[in-house]
Each structure stands twice: as C-alpha cells, then as structure tokens.
Amino acid sequence: MAEPLFRRVALIGIGLIGSSLARVLRRDSPETHIVACARRAETLEAVRRLKIADETTDDPAAAVADADLVVIATPLSAYAEIAAKIASALADGAIVTDVGSVKEAAIRDLMPAIRDGVHLVPGHPVAGTEHSGPESGFAELFDDRWCILTPPPGTDPSAIAKITALWQLAKMKVVTMPAEHHDRVLAVTSHLPHLIAYTIVGTATALGDDLRSEVIAYSAGGFRDFTRIAASDPVMWRDIFMKNREAVLDVLQRFSEDLTALQRAIRRGEGEVLEDWFIRTRAIRRSVIEAKQA
Amino acid sequence: MAEPLFRRVALIGIGLIGSSLARVLRRDSPETHIVACARRAETLEAVRRLKIADETTDDPAAAVADADLVVIATPLSAYAEIAAKIASALADGAIVTDVGSVKEAAIRDLMPAIRDGVHLVPGHPVAGTEHSGPESGFAELFDDRWCILTPPPGTDPSAIAKITALWQLAKMKVVTMPAEHHDRVLAVTSHLPHLIAYTIVGTATALGDDLRSEVIAYSAGGFRDFTRIAASDPVMWRDIFMKNREAVLDVLQRFSEDLTALQRAIRRGEGEVLEDWFIRTRAIRRSVIEAKQA
Predict the structure, then answer these.
(1) Which end of chain B, N or C, is less packed with Cβ atoms under 10 Å?
(2) Residue B134 sits in which domain range?
(3) Does residue B116 sit in the same domain as residue B221?
(4) Which parts of chain B have pLDDT scores under 50?
(5) End of a domain among A177, A197, A219?
(6) Rounded CA gap, A241 and A192, in Å?
(7) Are A234 and B278 an interchain contact pair (Cβ–Cβ within 8 Å)?
(8) pLDDT in the model for residue B294
C-alpha cells in the first residue's frame, strides 16, 4: 500500500468542518491516524461515538506531538492561544493549516508558532451548512466547492502541494491567492450576506409577539432563506466580524449607499430605477448557475 | 359526476402562479373550462403548447365573458387597466380574485370593476420560485403553503368559501386577514428580504470585473442564496415596491437602524453584542422549522 498523504493528523477543533474532513480521511486515507482535540468533553465524547478519530484529547500540545499535519478548525478567536500552546510541541517538518474564514488574522495569530522547519499553509474551504458540531459533518460537504489557500510569501512549495492534495482528496477545487485579497472577496460573498441575514431576522424578531408568529408562518416569501443563514454558529460568526473588520465595514458602506438609493427610488415612485437594478441582478444569478455554484 | 367548483375560469396573466393554478385545475377539476389571457403572443403560444388551457385570448373582456371565476395573476401595475377592460363584461354572480403580493392596492385598483352581484375576494398564495413564465409553473408549487385572503368588509361569505375551496384544492392552508395587516406582514417576510437581496447582489456586481468573477466563483459562502432571490421577476417586484411603499419604507427604516447598531458593534470591537444578536436569530430558525415552513 502506498504511503498515506499524512501519517498522523491532529484536528484541533472538530465541528462541522473538522469532522467533515475527518470523514474524508476515513474514507480516502484509512491509513492516516487521526487525533481529535476539543475543549469540551461532550464534543470528544461525540467524536468517539461517531468513530471519526483514533484518539481524542483536550490538550492541543499532546494532539500535535509527532503529527505531520495539524489542522486548526476552531473559531478564529482561539487561534492565538492554540498557537502558544502548540509552538514547542510541533514536530520538525510539520505542516500547520487552518480552515478559518479570515486569512490575514489567521496568519497573524498562528505565525508565532511557526519556527524554521515548520510550515504554515492557511486555507479556507468555502463550504458549510447552518449546522454545527461533529454530528453535523459529512464527507461530501466539500464536493466541487472551492478551497482557497493563502500561503505567506516564501512558503515551501512542497507543503503547499500537500495541502492542495488534501483538499483535492475532499473533491475540492483548490486555488491560491494573497490573504488580503481573500479577505476582501469573502467580505462580499460571505461575510456581508451573513451580517445582512442576521440583521433582518433580528429586525423581524423585534416586531412584537403577535406579528412575530405571523412572520414565521408566512416566511416562505423570502424570509426563510435568511433564517437559514442567520442560524449559523454565533461564535464563529462573531469572530469573523471581529477579525475581518475593515473589509466588512468597507463593503457594508457600499451596501448601505446602494440601499439608500433604492429606498429613495421607492419613496419617489421611480419604478424604472428599481426595474433596471433588478434586471441587472437577475443576470448575476445566471452567472452563478453557469459557474456551477448554485 | 359532481358539479365542478367553477364551470369556467378566466386566468388573466399566466406566468408562474397562473400556470401553476391552471395545472391544479387540470389535475383536480378536469371539468372546468379554462380560458388563458395574456398580452404577449408567445405566452399564449406556450400555453397552447403546454395544453394548460382550453382557450387563449389577448382580450381580457372576451376572457371573462360567462366566466364564474376570474383570476388576475398579472403584475400589480396592470390591475387598474384590466379592471377597466373587464368591468362591463363580467357575468352576474362572477367572483373576481387575484394572486398579487400587495392587497390594499389590489383592492383599490380592482374595486371599480365590482358592481352589485359581482364579488371581489382578493388572495395571495404565498408560494413561488425565482422562475417566471408559464413553462416554470407546476401544480405542487402550492403544497402546504399559506394562502391569505383579504376580502373587504361585507364580502359575500359564499364567495369567500368558494375561493377558500379553490386554494384548498391546490393543497394550501387558507387564512383570512385585513388587507392592511397582510401588507405589513408581507413587507417583513417577503418584500424587505427581496429588496435586501436585490441590493446586495447589485453591490457585488458593481465591484469591477476582476472581483466580480471571483464573487461568483466563491458564492457558496452565502451570496448564492441572495442571487436566487434577486433573480425574481423584475417587473413583478418593481410593482410590489411601488404598491406597498409605506409598509416597505417603514420596515426598511427599522432594518437600517438595526444594521447601523451591528455596524457600530463591529467598528468598536464589541463581540458580545454580535454574539447575543446571533444567538437570538438562531432561535428564529428553529421556529420556522417547527412551523414546517423550512
């Protein structure tokens, strides 16, 4: 049998993404020894019940000892502390990667753990559902989606190649770009949509009890799609907004200006302004379908 | 065989909703004679090809002659003109209903056609997809969704009962409420979500060519759900915002205030404000699922 891509993988954080990756490794790289690390005992208990790891621990330093791959899949706010805990325990030649949604901050927080001979290849598999926790994971989560790697300049090309191969195993299309660019693109495609969905669902919730039950009953008219997005993990998303603050505020400013323009058109009865806008946005949907992302 | 619910139905406008209702009648009331009326020859040609009507015409007055049910399923901006055209052609005892998303305006625009002995029972089947046109309809569109009727005070109860039975045939749950209340609820559950989705997709489109192709590629992170909503029929939605102006502007104002509060929390680094908000919105998703609207 061929040498597995990674001999020993430490998964620090094993929620939706971490546990889905564990399932991919189980399916496609059964020789790989998987160590799952989580802070909460019930998470580790779930991992054992699901049989998606060979070992479980709540100690990041113990998890990474002798691992040739370390995958950090916790909320972003835990990165700096994890980096401090694993720094001296990382094996020579180990590759550290992550799955976080903000890459400049990920690099800033993880870099202190990266000594000579250890490699940092930050990554972001752009896939997910509104569910969280190890029970919600599944190997097919990544099928045909994009994974964006943002290796800092000077990163060892063979380490990048191995992380590329990892996500290709998960059937992802892998692309590389600068962290700053990633953060700007994702602010538009993911962070702003989530912020808007959270806002609108919150607005509806504040309407008072009688109206609220009706809003829920008649949600099929558009609102329910927002409730799905606004059910995403609160801690993960809190961290994303805290860590990608500048890019999110910038795109939010543009959004607010556009919304004000449409609001003005409604108030003034300028139907043609709305219609022109709506015709333009409909074309975007076709592009998304053609790009096979719908 | 029992008498059909309606002997002769005139469908004025035969897009997604009108053609889906035609398919329901074909399935569950094959004795009913269906007349489809549309302005464009290619729409009528599609109706004939799909065999979802017994007669086609571009003349609303001819369509409604001798009909015991008239269903207006055009964009809202066409109502007043249709009312003028059909007024003298409506048969004694005919029931006029519609499927529009704004009910106060629908009543205002249709009422001039309603003489003594003719009944107006405005309705809104809360169901839809982002597709439009007669080819996009299907009988199951309405299954298990709500249909809201907003009969003006004094409407003949037997006319209301017949329209209730019509939508129950389509497997809808039928409820009655005042038009003004309907417009306020739908402003929250449907009109505001669409306006926001249209805005955000437009904002992303304006980012410049290189960024735009990336926004489309990485749309799986949340954006693609908005593109689906923002692909809805431009004319239909232009009319909804023009006709439900006050309710939409009111809820939009609340939304903007909430968004500003979250923007402020991001700028000031107040993570706990965001987390509290996100925990609250997650609970709403559960309510939507429990209400079987997800």
Answers:
(1) N
(2) 8-177
(3) no
(4) none
(5) A177
(6) 9
(7) yes
(8) 65
Domains of chain B: total: 2
Residue A42, Cβ neighbours under 10 Å: how many? 10
| B190:A221 CB<8 A | yes
- Is B1 domain-assigned? no
Q: Chains A and B: how many Cβ contacts under 8 Å?
A: 306
Chain B residue with the nearest C-alpha to that of A284? B227
The whole-model pTM stands at 0.89
Is A2 within a domain? Answer: no
Summarised one tens digit per residue, pLDDT across range A205-235 is 888 777 888 888 888 778 888 988 899 999 9
Complete DSSP assignment for A11-78? EE--SHHHHHHHHHHHHH-TTSEEEEE-SSHHHHHHHHHHT--SEEES-HHHHHTT-SEEEE-S-GGG
Mean pLDDT of A21-50: 97
State whether B68 and B212 are in the same domain: no
Which domain CATH number covers A198? 1.10.3660.10
User: B149 forms bridges with which residues in the sheet?
Assistant: B123, B176
Q: Cα–Cα distance between A145 and B78 in angstroms, integer? A: 43
Distance between A138 CA and the closest CA of chain B, angstroms: 17
Domain end, chosen from A140, A161, A177, is at A177
